Recover the amino acids of this structure.
């Protein structure tokens, strides 16, 4: 069985593309990538 | 919802859909975190209401050649099992276009996913004139908000993969003769549930289904090691006696401790003739008076359910690991208010353990020998789940947690009589969150169709 590990939330720069152009925002994503 | 796994449409025909019940305020589904063996259970604590995701925008006119599909940001409003109710960003308190998706699918993406694929976000038609500056709106709404990890889709796909491969040999409890295990081959895998075919069964036989973590599955060589009755072709027995393994043999590293056993259990304290209470493997709605008939190696015991006529051949014995949560000390049912199915010839109302032990001359297995650990499982009565019907385990059905006794769950199949209920452990790999069948492309059985009286 996989034991649930405590994971950190990390701040990430996220790129957004709209019809008016691109920009980036800072969001929180869990560290599920580790 | 498109599952991550593709199946033939015919296999999913008439699959039950929870969708009409999901928005009901009294509908409660057991959360994914209750099911340790379920896909994505290990990352589910980081999936929550209020999160922002990118999802297909179905509220749009016609799609252009340049952008054949349209996406927008949405907020998770509610989570029910694997299903999430989403609201497109910009709708504010307007719930008119809220919709349900499966979070265990390739339908939802972390914010930023579209930009990495060169897809612009396009606001829904209903609100396209609501703001002049969508860039500014999104910047304000998304800054500081939570989203999914960037590798979410990979995590979802990985978590659906079985550790077994098609064609592997293993030893499986014989569905027609539960006191023995038989050599079988993995024939099909759906959502980590294995369809195995016994080596000697007719071509048309549909085989046997169980989850890859099921205690009914064992590695090649297990029966010989623990001293269990094995049915196998002669060449299999001969090569194992020479210690020769094939590349197609499922070896111990693929199994969990209950499936493999351990020399640590060389002295379990159980001995032949001891009495106990046990879930009847052939009638899971009953917890019965039982007897230890044999003590095997590596922590296994053979028990017999005293409810049935004694079979001199031992064909009705069943193997339980001594730490199985499905066996209990004498008095367990009485102390928890559960009806105990008495031995053959005794009445339920009049059965008395002390008298029975005196009459039979047996001793009870000491309570200290049993697994009494109760995990913080989170199940409560009324929760909806999807559960395999273990009397026909190719079927996964809609069900409700009817009763919780420590770590033991009484699972009721919606629309069916109480006699079809199943006592299952809270860590049973045969129960799943609402939406599991859809995610793994397994048919979900609904309630029986009621025919109107004529």
């Amino acid at each position: 069985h996989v034991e649930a590990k405590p994971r950190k939330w990390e701040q990430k720069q996220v790129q957004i593309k709209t019809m008016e152009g691109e920009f980036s925002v800072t969001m929180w994503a869990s560290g599920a990538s580790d | 919802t498109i599952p991550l796994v593709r199946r033939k449409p015919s296999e999913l025909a008439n699959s039950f859909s929870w969708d009409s019940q999901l928005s009901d305020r009294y509908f409660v589904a057991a959360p994914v975190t209750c099911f340790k063996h379920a896909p994505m259970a290990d990352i589910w604590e980081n999936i929550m209401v209020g999160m922002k995701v990118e999802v297909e925008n179905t509220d749009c006119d016609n799609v252009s050649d340049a952008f054949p599909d349209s996406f927008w940001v949405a907020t998770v409003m509610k989570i029910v099992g694997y299903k999430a109710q989403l609201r497109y960003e910009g709708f504010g308190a307007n719930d008119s276009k809220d919709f349900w998706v499966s979070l265990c699918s390739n339908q939802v993406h972390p914010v930023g996913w579209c930009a990495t694929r060169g897809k612009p976000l396009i606001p829904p038609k209903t609100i396209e004139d609501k703001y002049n500056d969508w860039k500014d709106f999104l910047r304000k709404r998304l800054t500081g908000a939570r989203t999914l990890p960037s590798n979410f889709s990979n995590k979802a796909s990985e978590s659906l993969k079985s550790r077994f491969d098609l064609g592997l040999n293993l030893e499986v409890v014989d569905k027609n003769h539960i006191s023995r295990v038989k050599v079988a081959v993995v024939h099909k895998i759906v959502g980590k549930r294995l369809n195995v075919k016994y080596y000697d069964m007719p071509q048309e036989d549909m085989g046997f289904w169980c989850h890859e973590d099921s205690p009914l599955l064992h590695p090649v060589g297990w029966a010989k090691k623990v001293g269990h009755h094995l049915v196998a072709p002669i060449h299999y027995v001969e090569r194992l006696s020479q210690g020769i393994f094939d590349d197609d043999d499922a070896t111990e590293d693929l199994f969990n401790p209950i499936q493999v056993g351990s020399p640590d259990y060389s002295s379990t304290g159980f001995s032949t003739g001891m009495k106990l209470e046990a879930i009847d493997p052939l009638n899971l709605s009953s917890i019965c008076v039982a007897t230890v008939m044999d003590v095997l190696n590596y922590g296994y015991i053979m028990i017999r359910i005293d409810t049935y006529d004694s079979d001199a051949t031992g064909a009705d014995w069943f193997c339980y690991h001594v730490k199985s949560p499905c066996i209990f000390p004498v008095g367990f049912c009485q102390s928890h208010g559960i009806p105990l199915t008495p031995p053959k010839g005794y009445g339920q109302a009049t059965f008395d353990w002390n008298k029975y032990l005196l009459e039979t001359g047996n001793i009870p297995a000491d309570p200290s020998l049993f697994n009494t650990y109760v995990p913080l499982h989170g199940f409560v009565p009324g929760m909806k789940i999807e559960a395999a019907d273990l009397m026909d385990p190719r079927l996964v059905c809609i069900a409700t947690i009817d009763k919780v006794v420590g770590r033991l769950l009484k699972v009721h199949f919606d629309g069916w009589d109480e006699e079809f209920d199943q006592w299952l452990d809270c860590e049973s790999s045969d129960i799943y969150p609402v939406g599991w069948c859809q995610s793994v492309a397994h048919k979900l059985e609904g309630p029986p169709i009621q025919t109107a009286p004529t």
